[in-house]
Design goal:
four-stranded antiparallel beta sheet, binds adenosine-5'-triphosphate, alpha/beta, binds magnesium ion
């Protein structure tokens, strides 16, 4: 997979070891994501998927013990979370925080402004316009406070809106499908496929095959024991999902590429 890529990967994670609260959660993670590729990351609860995602965004609670993260060929281990966002790395948290007093529209405008765009209001409108009908979003939703008085699925919809407004080079979506109903997951699939066509790369963390089905991702990886223990390409996905259902994750205990 990665060895044969002719062009430089957008994101390269090289032998990364991570600690959280003094606990070694990730132990030698390797991953390469090319332009416009969708990679699915699966693994049992507590296996470190969110920890790995947070480290790419530069989350302060996660400490890099060894290894490197490269974004467009540049080592970003020491880059601040804000600079990572500005350079095109977007993370949708598994549990997005509530920001009382800030509306979804104000948050989105603020994040587009932070990208250094000259007319952020017009640009925000332009970025959101193709996606609002797909997501069936109306004005009242945009005026809600971020994650306050929102249902589980609405919180995830708000994350998707922030994603399309940020228009990143790579988006890491941590359980974006959790709490979303099936029609909403279908909407998310449409949005993500459109962004993929425009060249956005994705790491999508999920426990469910529904979103995978709507996305037809390029690769699927399984994290276990702090490492990727299995990577499969688009053709072998159905087999992997069946195997997870039948045997769980612990049968994937050595690195194997299908
Ligand atoms: N805020 C935290 N502080 C300290 N340790 C944490 C924290 N959050 C998670 N951990 C620990 O880090 C390890 C990895 O957790 P992580 O959240 O990355 O797993 P995950 O694969 O995303 O799981 P899930 O599928 O349940 O979301 C677990 O042992 C967990 O207990
Ligand atoms: Mg998680």
């Amino acid at each position: 997979m990665s060895e044969t890529k002719a062009v430089k990967p957008v994101l390269k994670i090289s032998n990364l070891s991570l600690e959280r609260d003094k606990k070694n959660v990730i132990k030698g993670l390797n991953l390469e994501i090319g332009k416009g590729e969708i990679h699915i990351l699966m693994g049992k609860n507590g296996s470190g998927k969110s920890t790995a995602a947070l480290s790419v965004a530069g989350y302060p609670g996660v400490e890099i013990k060894s290894g490197k993260i490269f974004f467009n060929g540049k080592n970003i281990n020491e880059m601040s979370p804000v600079d990572r966002f500005k350079s095109g790395i977007f993370l949708a948290f598994q549990n997005p925080p509530m920001i009382e007093g800030l509306t979804v529209s104000a948050l989105i405008r603020r994040s587009v402004s932070s990208l250094g765009i000259l007319s952020p209001i017009a640009e925000t409108k332009k970025r959101l316009a193709p996606f609002l009908p797909i997501l069936k979003i109306d004005e009242s939703f945009l005026e809600k406070q971020v994650n306050k008085d929102m249902s589980g699925g609405e919180k995830k919809k708000s994350e998707i809106l922030q994603l399309v407004a940020a228009d990143p080079k790579i988006a890491i979506l941590d359980e974006i499908d959790s709490g979303a109903d099936i029609p909403t997951i279908k909407q998310f699939g449409k949005v993500l496929n459109l962004l993929k066509k425009r060249g956005t790369s994705f790491i999508i963390i999920t426990h469910y095959e529904k979103l995978i089905k709507y996305l037809a991702p390029d690769y699927i990886h399984i994290l276990n024991g702090g490492k990727i223990v299995f990577s499969g390409d688009v053709k072998s996905q159905a087999g992997i999902l069946k195997r997870i259902e039948k045997e769980g994750f612990d049968s994937f205990n050595e690195k194997r590429t299908q």
